[in-house]
Design brief:
Length: 92
């Protein structure tokens, strides 16, 4: 779960202020997200619920580790690949 949350943080935030930005997006303090990434805290119900509400497309992947694109359930990894492919397509 921790690794998937960190993946969402990396995908959805500005890199130079990622925890503060994630706080703004979820309403949960930056220190909690930082502690989670550093292994000082485990994901709790509040964190999982906040992510699921803000990014419902990631909710299924967050709790199962699987995607179901036919039903709109994706992952930050797939979203990054799509964005990269669009960028490459524009450059070609």
């Amino acid at each position: 779960m921790k690794d998937r949350i960190v993946e969402i943080i990396e995908q959805e935030t500005e890199s130079h202020r990622k925890f503060k930005h994630f706080e703004e997006l979820t309403g949960i303090g930056a220190r909690k997200w930082q502690n989670l990434q550093q292994g000082k805290q485990r994901a709790n119900d509040e964190m999982i619920e906040a992510i699921g509400k803000r990014w419902p497309q990631y909710a299924y992947w967050l709790v199962t580790g699987e995607t179901d694109e036919a039903h709109g359930h994706t992952s930050p990894i797939l979203e990054r690949i799509r964005a990269d492919l669009k960028r490459v397509g524009k450059a070609a």
